[in-house]
């Protein structure tokens, strides 16, 4: 019976820790990529340069 309690406790701990870990990773990625964020006009120009029209 103690094994079931430990398993449930680990599951609850993981269920609480996973969203926090994802949140921290997303925040870190956003800070890392902040310099490369472009406005809409710049992004459209870059997209047009990347495509080849026939």
TrEMBL record:
One matching Pfam family: DUF8143
Alphabetized InterPro entries for the sequence: DUF8143 (IPR058456)
Region (Disordered): 30-54
Record's protein name: Uncharacterized protein
């Amino acid at each position: 019976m103690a094994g079931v309690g430990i398993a449930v406790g680990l599951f609850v701990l993981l269920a609480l820790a996973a969203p926090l870990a994802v949140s921290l990773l997303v925040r870190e990625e956003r800070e890392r990529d902040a310099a490369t964020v472009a406005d809409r006009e710049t992004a459209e120009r870059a997209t047009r340069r990347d495509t080849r029209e026939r």
